C-alpha cells in the first residue's frame, strides 16, 4: 500500500474547478489527488476522500453572511488561494476525514486505539479466529500494507508522535485470500514452534483451526 501523509501534503485543485464546485452549492467530495465528485456520501464510489459534504457559500444570502474562502469547507480545513490553484490543508481535520472515509476504508489505525476491527465482515472474521492464537490485528494489517495494492491516508506527526489513518485496498477479494493464506501459515508456524499445543486446545481454538482448514 501507498502511505499518504496529509499532514505534510496539502491537496491541490485547479482554482476554476474548485470555485465552480463550491458555487454549485450541492453535496460534493474531494479526493487526495484533487478530483471532485458530486453527490451524497451514499452515492460516491469507494475510494479515499479528504472532504465529503456541502461547502458554505462564498456569496452568502439574505439569511447568512458570505464565508471566507479559507473556511469554505469548515473550520478545520485551511483553504488557500495560490493563483491558479487552491491548496487545502487538512492537518487539523482528522474527525472530518474519519467521517468521510468510514463507509469505504477497511480499517482505522490510531495512536490511541490502534487497529480494533475490519469493516468488511469476512475480513473481520479472520481477525476473530486468529486472535485465538494471539495473532493481533496489527500483524494482519502490516502484512496487507506490504502485500496488497491500496492506500493509507493519514495524519502522522513526529513530535509528539501521533498517527491517525484509514486504509483502503483496491481488491478486497485478493486481500482476503492473501490474509487467509498468511494466517494459516502463521498458525502452522506456532504449532511447529510449540507455541500452540494441539493437544490442549480450547473450543474456540478448535473452531479456528477448522476455519483455517488445519488438521492437527
Describe this structure as you would to a colleague.
This protein has 216 residues and is of the alpha+beta class. The chain has 2 domains: 2-100, no CATH class; 105-211, no CATH class. Helix content is 32%, strand content 21%. The protein has 6 helices and 10 strands, in the order E-E-H-E-E-E-E-E-H-E-H-H-E-E-H-H. It has helices spanning 15-24, 94-101, 121-130, 137-147, 172-192, 203-211, and strands at residues 2-5, 11-14, 28-30, 36-38, 51-53, 78-81, 85-89, 107-110, 150-157, 162-169. A 4-stranded mixed sheet has the order 1-9-10-8, covered by helices on one side. Strand 9 (150-157) and strand 10 form a beta hairpin. It is elongated, with a radius of gyration of 22 Å. The model has no long low-confidence stretch (mean pLDDT 94).
List keywords for this structure.
4-stranded mixed beta sheet, single chain, alpha+beta, 3-stranded antiparallel beta sheet, 6 helices, 32% helix, 216 residues
Distance between the first and last residues' Cα: 34 Å
- Our count of helices gives 6
Order of H and E elements: EEHEEEEEHEHHEEHH
The residue-averaged pLDDT reads 94
> Could you give a short account of the major beta sheet?
4 strands, mixed
User: What percentage of residues falls in helices of 4 or more residues?
Assistant: 25-40%
Q: Can you count the beta strands?
A: 10
Amino acid at each position: 500500500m501507498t502511505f499518504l501523509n496529509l499532514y505534510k501534503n496539502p491537496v491541490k485543485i485547479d482554482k476554476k474547478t474548485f470555485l465552480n464546485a463550491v458555487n454549485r452549492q450541492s453535496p460534493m467530495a474531494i479526493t487526495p489527488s484533487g478530483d471532485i465528485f458530486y453527490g451524497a456520501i451514499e452515492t460516491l464510489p469507494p475510494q479515499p476522500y479528504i472532504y465529503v459534504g456541502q461547502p458554505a457559500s462564498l456569496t452568502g444570502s439574505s439569511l447568512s453572511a458570505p464565508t471566507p474562502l479559507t473556511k469554505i469547507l469548515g473550520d478545520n480545513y485551511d483553504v488557500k488561494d495560490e493563483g491558479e490553484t487552491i491548496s487545502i490543508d487538512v492537518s487539523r481535520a482528522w474527525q472530518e476525514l474519519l467521517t468521510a472515509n468510514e463507509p469505504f476504508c477497511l480499517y482505522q489505525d490510531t495512536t490511541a486505539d490502534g487497529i480494533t476491527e475490519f469493516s468488511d465482515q469476512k475480513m473481520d472474521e479472520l481477525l476473530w479466529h486468529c486472535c485465538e492464537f494471539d495473532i493481533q490485528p496489527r500483524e494482519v494489517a502490516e502484512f496487507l500494507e506490504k502485500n496488497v495494492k491500496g492506500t493509507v491516508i493519514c495524519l502522522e506527526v513526529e513530535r509528539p508522535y501521533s498517527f491517525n489513518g484509514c486504509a483502503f485496498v483496491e481488491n478486497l477479494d485478493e486481500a482476503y485470500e492473501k490474509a487467509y493464506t498468511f494466517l494459516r501459515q502463521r498458525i502452522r508456524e506456532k504449532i511447529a514452534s510449540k507455541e500452540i499445543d494441539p493437544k490442549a486446545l480450547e473450543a474456540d481454538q478448535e473452531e479456528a483451526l477448522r476455519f483455517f482448514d488445519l488438521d492437527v
